TrEMBL record:
Protein name: Methionine--tRNA ligase
Function: Is required not only for elongation of protein synthesis but also for the initiation of all mRNA translation through initiator tRNA(fMet) aminoacylation.
EC number in record: 6.1.1.10
Provenance organism: Candidatus Buchananbacteria bacterium RIFCSPHIGHO2_01_FULL_44_11
GO biological process: methionyl-tRNA aminoacylation
Matches recorded under InterPro entries: aa-tRNA-synth_Ia, Met-tRNA_synth, Met-tRNA_synth_2, Methionyl/Leucyl_tRNA_Synth, MetRS_core, Rossmann-like_a/b/a_fold, tRNAsynth_Ia_anticodon-bd
UniProt keywords, alphabetically: Aminoacyl-tRNA synthetase, ATP-binding, Ligase, Nucleotide-binding, Protein biosynthesis
Family note: Belongs to the class-I aminoacyl-tRNA synthetase family.
């Protein structure tokens, strides 16, 4: 039986078009999914959209649209982004779907009755965050994420008794039974838990929810708090509602359940989500990878500043492979990084056009010019690199993984410069040496292509096509220099 592997991205609100930050998350999760598939693991990769958020309701009101019409239109853009970036997700969960509603309600009903209780509540609520804040968490009376004044909300809601799980959550995370990467985020979560966990509200009134969202089972006056329903997507997307085969295969009979998220929603994934699953008596996720944010000029991207980077425009101009490469290699996997077009173009010319592209042209050109017959046994490719890459991928350090592959590109470049096959070609007695040198180079390039597959799948396929052809030809340049 092949090992199983399950990976998810977070599901973003669909109140606006997707931005570059979500493109980063998709590309990171995709590289991991493809990496595990390449190792012949039975892999399932889920992404989706959070359509039940109150933010979507507000966006629809502003546009004068029905909420359903707005989420249908905007979710289509998120689906389009997965295609534009060549993301290999196996499914896309929509939280307006019947299977999600049924699954979220099943999870609610499965929670231990002693963990859920109803109480009157008054609090400061940020709709942007879909979260209550305490007075001391605010900055100048405003939400620290949105710099807006939270609303005072008073109503009777259901609460989840998070305090029942404090000890178990602490142990779960301290022991790495639920591993949080990077370590700094693990420590943040631990100190948050050790400060004492407060129960959190898991529903809101039907009225405040504007009749949008998943109804609480058995209580038509209440709609589930959007985070309760959104988190459940990780199992509802696997047909948890019907105990379907994908749920059994990838959640129950699988030890590798990985969530990829941005740092803004870590508490929900590191604390609330495992507590909900414990209460329902279900298996817990195993790994949480937390990526950083993409900034512009050191600051946040925002619509009002007009500096939002549109991932579709980038793909249109440079192609999916270049965008994938830039996001994985030059955006730090966990530290906030600046995005700028100048550095993207520099990376393109230096790493892709002059580095990899040039190496492929150089070697295929030498083979074609000298009419050398190359036969590479693709089953005997150099494999010593796989272990090193394994370790880097387990730590989600995509930048280092690509650096490692690019070191192989430089090594091979140096090998060719030293051997000077073009000089051998002029001396009849060195024909055999010439063939050996170029055969070795072709085998190394195929090994590089194999390592590249999870990151740049189309480029890897092009390289394989060139070097496994019956007659190797130089062909077109993989990455023409930008002028
Ligand atoms: Zn907020």
């Amino acid at each position: 039986m092949p090992k199983k592997f399950y990976i998810t991205t977070a599901i973003p609100y669909v109140n606006a078009s997707p931005h570059i930050g979500f493109a980063l998350e998709l590309v990171q999760a995709d590289a991991v999914a493809r990496y595990h598939r390449q190792k012949n693991e039975d892999t399932f990769f889920l992404t989706g959209a959070d359509e039940n958020s109150l933010k979507n309701v507000q966006a629809a009101e502003i546009e004068g649209l029905a909420v359903r019409a707005l989420v249908d239109r905007n979710t289509a853009k998120f689906v389009a982004l997965t295609k534009a970036l060549n993301i290999s997700n196996d499914d896309f969960i929509r939280t307006v779907s019947e299977k999600h509603f049924a699954g979220a309600q099943k999870l609610w009903a499965a929670c231990r009755p002693e963990d859920l209780y109803k109480k009157k509540y008054k609090g400061l609520y940020c709709v942007g965050c879909e979260q209550f804040y305490t007075q001391k968490e605010l900055v100048d009376g405003k939400c620290p994420e949105h710099q807006t004044k939270p609303e005072v909300v008073e109503e009777e809601n259901y609460f989840f008794k998070l305090s029942n799980y404090q000890k178990r959550l602490e142990k779960l995370i301290a022991s790495d039974e639920y591993r949080i990467v990077p370590e700094t985020k693990k420590n943040e979560v631990l100190s948050f838990i050790r400060m004492g966990l407060e129960d959190f509200s898991i529903s809101r009134s039907q009225q405040r929810a504007k009749n949008w969202g998943v109804p609480v089972p058995g209580d038509p006056t209440q709609v589930m708090y959007v985070w309760f329903d959104a988190l459940s997507n990780y199992i509802t997307g696997l047909d948890y509602a019907t105990d379907g085969k994908v749920y059994k295969d990838y959640w129950l009979k699988n030890e590798n359940r990985v969530h990829v998220i941005g740092k803004g929603i870590i508490r929900f994934h590191a604390v609330y989500w495992p507590a909900m699953l414990m209460s329902a008596g279900l298996d817990l996720p195993k790994t949480l990878f937390v990526h950083g944010y993409i900034n512009i000029g050191g600051g946040k991207m925002s619509k009002s500043l007009g500096n939002v980077v549109d991932p579709f425009a980038l793909v249109e101009k440079y192609g999916a492979e270049v965008v994938r490469y830039y996001l994985l290699r030059h955006i730090h996997p966990v530290v906030d990084s600046d995005f700028d077009l100048k550095s993207l173009e520099q990376a393109y010319n230096a790493d892709l056009a002059n580095g990899l592209g040039n190496l492929v042209s150089r070697v295929s050109g030498l083979i074609e010019q000298n009419n050398v017959k190359i036969k590479v046994d693709s089953k005997k490719l150099p494999v010593q690199s796989a272990k090193d890459l394994d370790q880097l991928m387990a730590q989600f350090v995509f930048d280092q993984a690509l650096k490692f592959i690019w070191a192989k590109v430089s090594e091979l470049d140096s090998y060719i410069s030293e051997k000077k096959p073009w000089a051998m070609a002029k001396i009849e007695s060195q024909k055999k040496e010439l063939t050996e040198c170029l055969t070795k180079a072709a085998a190394e390039i195929l090994a590089i292509a194999s390592l590249l597959k999870p990151f740049l799948p189309q480029t890897a396929a092009k390289i394989e096509k060139i070097f496994t052809a019956p007659k190797i030809k130089k062909g077109e340049s993989l990455f023409p220099r930008l002028t």
